[in-house]
Amino acid sequence: MIILILNKSIFFMLTIIISAIIFSPTVNAEIFQSNEYGFSIEYPENWYVDDTILSMAPVSGFDDGGASVVFLSDDSENWNHSIEVVFIKNDVLAINSEGVEYIEKVKNRLIEFCESATFQFDGFECSNHSIIDSKIIEINGREAYQIKEFWTQTYSDGSEFNNISILTNFVMNNNVWTIDSINTVELFTKDIENQINETINSFILIDNFEPDVSSKLPDNFEPDVSSKLPELFIQILTERVRYVPGQIVNINGVVADSNTRPVDTVISLTVSQKDQETHNIVYKQSVFAIQGKFRDQGLNLDEPGTYIINATAPMSSVNTFSFTTFEVVNIFATNAAFISYLGLAAFASLMILLIKVPSNPSKREILRFTCVTIIALTPIAVFVFTDVEIGQGAPIGLVVKPKVSESETSRSIELTNNIIENEWMINLGGTYAGGYKGGLQIPVFVLIFGIAGGYIRYLNTTYKLIKKDTNLVKNLEINNSEIYETRISLLRQSLKDLSLLFLAPLLAIASFFLLQQGGVQMDDLPTLAAVSFAVGLVTDNIISKLEDILGKQKPQNNQD
């Protein structure tokens, strides 16, 4: 055995020496060699080398796991160019595919990772992803799969980094050695690109080398069949517990080993509809956990009911599973829908009241006041009692937008109740797929305080009108000749009241945007709420001032 190991080491050293002579780089280089994982790679001198991450959790948790072997970078902390060599044991993609099919599956994995990256689970968001080039090449006589991609990395503080990554995979005996180079676009000059390519092209891998994971085990270790697979723990959750038909259900989760270290592995998801007798499976999907985090965004259901999500880890040494439930409700049978029906009925009643004027003035004003009050308070009641998004995929809707916090920059995974912070918004033009970053989003509380202020103003105005016109409190009958005049008066007053009530939240929204332009932050809730409420109180004064300003400008325009 000792002789065999020595012969293997001597052969490996001779291979490195011969290749170093043939494939010498154009710049001064140093060599990193891993006898344990059977490869060597040359890198620019003065680069930072970190091979201590060998002690971290496996990068891939498929069968015997994997490891991030070495991390090379131009700086130990604030690096702009990096190269990481990762070993993956029994890679699923390598087992099930090869050639063009394999490289296409790797490209899809990169796209899925970018789409699923979040502040909550990854510490950053990925956007503007595009594949620049993909090809099958030969490096030192060995076939390699290389993909070049562009992507933007955004952190919760707003900082953005445009990156170009070059991913090169070597597949041998279902194992994969990956060279992953990440570079800042602005500093990725032609010379740097040549330097990175020379480093990648210097990679040498021993034929039929099989890393011996057992060499890491202590002397007193007793083999056990179950020890070949890690014991994993899964936690899954959905962003909310109630959805409407057709709404996308995001399934988020984490997977870790018994030491709470993140593990990359395959997670099987099944969704079944719960009823009294059976559980009918309506959705199946396998997702890949990257750095212990996984997400699925392909589920949307049209049939109302209660559903159960089950997540299992096939590569766990024990029967690992986690589940959660959610409900799909008919949007026309929700509390918000019934409240909206009441508001529409109040509006219809007001129209009937204007057409058929009661002869009793007191009764007439009480009915009108009741109808206007119900119409005004309906939006607030809808916001209070709704717990589902409305118009998630429409240009206008009531949606939940993820709220970014500084704590979300952490990349650590804890098996605790991971709650995603969200904020209710009125969305105008933003898209769900883009995280509602585009378009306009107005916090719901701005509308609520604007409507509340407008309604209190309406109460005060109505009180003054009743106090001024004593005929309204007298039970006097009106004759037929006065009905038309009364109807016109009621119509004017009702239209004025409704227009001011609807203008109150619109002016509050305008004030919200002006405050944002003035530097008021979104988290300054007291200021935004106070201004929204105050604008609702003085809506008629604001309209009067605007009419005065426009009235003064109109004669000047005519003179010009």
Write a concise synopsis of the structure shown.
The protein is α+β, with helices and mostly antiparallel strands and 560 residues long. 36% of the residues lie in helices and 29% in strands.
Widest sheet, order of strands: 3-4-5-9-8-7-6
Computed structural class: alpha+beta
Number of strands: 21
Sheet bearing the most strands, described? 7 strands, antiparallel
**How many discrete structural domains?**
3
Q: Low-confidence segments, ≥5 residues, pLDDT <50?
A: 1-26, 55-64, 213-228, 404-420, 470-478
* Gross morphology: elongated
Give the overall pLDDT as a whole number.
Answer: 77
Name the beta content range. 25-35%
Distance between the termini: 103 Å
Compute the CA-based radius of gyration.
Answer: 33 Å
Question: What does this molecule look like?
Answer:
The protein has helices at about 1-20, 90-95, 100-115, 120, 190-200, 335-355, 360-385, 445-470, 480-515, 525-535, 540-560, and strands at about 30-35, 40-45, 50, 65-75, 80-90, 125-140, 140-155, 160-170, 175-185, 205, 230-240, 240-245, 250-255, 265-275, 280-290, 295-300, 305-310, 320-330, 395-400, 420-430, 440-445. The chain has about 550 residues and is of the alpha+beta class. It folds into 3 domains: about 1-210, Mog1/PsbP, alpha/beta/alpha sandwich (Protein Transport Mog1p, Chain A, 3-Layer(aba) Sandwich), CATH 3.40.1000; about 230-330, Immunoglobulin-like (Sandwich); about 330-560, no CATH class. The strands form 5 sheets. The chain has a 7-stranded antiparallel sheet, sandwiched between helices. The protein has a 5-stranded mixed sheet with strand order 12-18-17-14-15, with no helix packed on it. A 3-stranded antiparallel sheet has the order 1-2-10. The protein starts with a helix and ends with a helix. Mean pLDDT is about 75; it is low at about 1-25, about 55-65, about 215-230, about 405-420 and about 470-480.
